[in-house]
Amino acid sequence: MSRSTRFRSLAVLAALLLIAWGCTSTSAPADPPMPTPPTGLAGFYEQELDYGACKDFAVTEADAKALAIKGLECAWLTVPLDYEEPTGKTIELGVLRVRADGDPIGSLVLNPGGPAAPGVSFAAKMATTAGYLKLYNDFDLVGFDMRGTGSSTPAVDCFTDAERDDDELLASFLFGGETWGEDKTRQVARTCAKGSGGDEVISHLGSRDTARDMDVLRAVLGDSQLNFMGASYGTRLGAVYAEMFPGHLRAMVLDGGMDPNLGISDRMVQQYTGFQRSFDAWATACAAAGECPVGDDPAQATAKFQQLVRPLIDDPVPGRAGRELTYRSAVEAVLRSLYSQKVGWPAITQGLTELAAGRGDSLLAARDGSQERAGDGSYSQFLEGALATHCNDRERFDPQQETQMRKRMLQAAPFMDDGRELQARDVCEHWPSEPTLNYPYAAGVDALPPTLVVSITGDPAAPHEGGVALANSLGSSLLTVEGEQHGVVFHGGSDCVNSAVADYLIKLKVPASDARCKL
Question: 125-139, 240-254, 320-334 — which is least confidently predicted?
Fold first, then answer.
C-alpha cells in the first residue's frame, strides 16, 4: 500500500476491506468471543492487513538495518483520524509482526515509550532477543508506530534539523522555553500544524486516540483480548487502554510506571527528584572509583557539576565534527546517561573529564544518540511526536504557573539549575485543541484482569513510587527490582525478571505480593 494513500474516505475504504473475524485468530476456543466493533467503526475493526516486506517502513538508517532481519512482515493499519468522525479523514499506522514458530497464545503488542518512540523498528530489534523472555514461541511479536511518528503517516514535523541542532526542541522539554515569548509558542503550534497535515492532525495525537488505535489493532490481529507490554510512557498508554477497554485485556505488563494520579506539575517534580537521586548515586560511585571529574565528596557533586557546565551558557566548547557543545546539550547528555548504570554512568565520567579539559566530543555524542541524530545531520522525528503527544495529554498553564512548576522542578534537581532567573512558558499554550487526558486517569477500573507492574528502585525517569502508585491504581501485582536504570523488561539481563514476566504472560501467574529481583 502506498504511503500516498494516507488520507481516504471511509466510503472508499469500505470497498477495499475484507471481513476477517475468526479467520486470523490464534486464540483457543475457550477464549472470550471477539468483541463487537463500536458503532460506525466496523470497517476499521474488520480490515485485513496486507503484510509484505518491511523495507518501506524504515525512516532512519538504523531502522533500515533493524528491518533487514529475516522473518519480519509489515503492513499498514488504517484508522480514523478522529474517532468521532469515522467517515472523515483516515491515517495509516506502520505495523510489524514476527510470527511465532508454533501455535501462539496470541499477539504480544509492544510499546517502547517515548512517548512516540517508533514501535516498528523496536519490535524488529526485539525479535532478535525475544528468546530471553521465552516468548518467541508463545506469541506473535507485534510493534506499531504511534500516530504521528516513525513510518506512520502523516508524521509530525515541527522543527528543522538546524533548529534541532540549536536545541530548540530540547528547550521546550527540559528547560521550559525559558527564552521564549508568546510569539515563539504560537509559532511552534503553527509550524507543527503546517508540517504535520494541519490543526486537525496534531489535535488527535494524544494517548486516548492511540489507545483506540490499539483496540483496532487488537481486533485486526485476530485477538479477542489484548496482550500488551509497555515501558515508561507505554505504562501511561497501557493504563489508558485499561481504563477505556478493561474487558478487552488478557495480560498487561507495565515497566517503569508513571503515576496516574499526578498532574503535570507534581509528576515533573517527582521525575526531577528521581533525576537528582540518580545523579547523586552516580557521583557517589564516581567518587569511590577515584579521579572523579566532580571531586571525591558526593555532597559537593552538584556544585562541582555546575562549575563545569554553567560556563557553556556563554562559551560552548569544541566538539566532534566541527560542532560545539552547549549548556543544554551537556545537561541533556548527562541526564540521558543516568538511565543506565552499566553503560551511561561511565559515559558521564568520561564526558565530564573531557569537558574539564576543554572538549565536548563524548557528551555531544551522547546528546546526539538520545535525539537520534544521523551522521548526515538529520534527526528522527520521534521527539517531535513526543511533543505532540505531550501537548494533547498535559494540562495547560499560564506563564506564572509554568514558571512556578519549573522552579519546583529545579529545586528537586538542582544539578540542572543554570543559576539564572527563570521565566518559563508552556510550549503547548497555543496548541489548537484542548488536552484530552484528565488526571487522575485509570482510577477505579472495573472488570480488569490481573496485570503486572515492574518497577526499579533506582529508576531515574520513572521513580519507584510512581510504579507503586500505578500498581495500586490498577490493582496490579508489583514486581520490585533493585537496581539503577530506567526500565528493565526490554533490556534483559535479569533471569529473575524474565522468568516472572514469562510466567505471567504465558501462564497468567502473577508474582507474590512481596516479590523482588536484583539486576
Answer: 125-139
